[in-house]
Amino acid sequence: MMDLSAEQTVTVLVVYSAALVPLAGLALIFSLGKLPRWIAAVYMLSFLACAAGWEVWLTFGLCGGEEVDVRRPEALSRAIPQSVNWLLNSLADASGICLVGLLLVWLAYRRKPTAFREWRWGAVGILLAWFVSQNVFVELLIYHTQLGAGHVLSWAPLIPTGPWWNPTLLEVDGRTVQFQTQIPWVLMTFIFYGIVIACYRRLGEPT
């Protein structure tokens, strides 16, 4: 497949599947009238927050960073063109990460909307733990060749330190976890939870 190594093939399959399979599922559920409007709104706003918050900036290296095609092998760039890289990542962020976080909070609060009506710090803790842990996993196993030490990543609205202060937080078998790639999900925890509460209050509360 486009001269991809086995590891690169897995990366391509994961990226496309994580973005498009949930999107197709949500579209089907929505077409059947089974997807609550407030959850659809959370999905769309989460997509926009992730895209504008960091994915577009990191993909194109807009402010002091290398564009993604510079940071990864040519075969990966052909399989995942730079023009859609930000889109796929943002779609995966909105569904596989944000909506899964929403599900975890719902389950933790005994499948009741308690934490969607008003701010609960317990819900913040659940989201923060999930957002950061999944991102560490992704950075170590999926995107380590394009996010690790030695690459210069752009400043972005949710990466206020940019490439100018980016200490290494963790190193495992030569693969690194950088501060710069974790901070957007820390900030996104609070933004996302605010989106959830606003959407539930406006569209989800019984009238």
Order of helices and strands: HHHHHHHHEEH
- Beta-strand portion reads under 5%
The number of distinct helices, counting runs of at least 4 residues, comes to 9
Mean pLDDT: 92
What general outline do the C-alpha atoms trace?
globular
Low-confidence stretches: none
State the distance separating the first and last CA atoms.
53 Å
Helical residue percent band: 55-70%
Radius of gyration: 17 Å
Count of distinct strands? 2
Q: Strand pairing plus helix content: what structural class? A: mainly alpha
How would you write the strand order of the largest sheet?
A: 1-2
How many separate domains make up the residues? 1
Describe this structure in words.
A hairpin with a 2-residue loop joins β1 and β2. The chain has one domain. A two-stranded antiparallel ribbon has the order 1-2. The chain has 9 helices and 2 strands; from the N terminus they run ααααααααββα. By secondary structure, the chain is mainly α. The termini are far apart. 34% of the residues are buried. α2 crosses α5, α2 packs antiparallel against α9 and α5 runs antiparallel to α7.
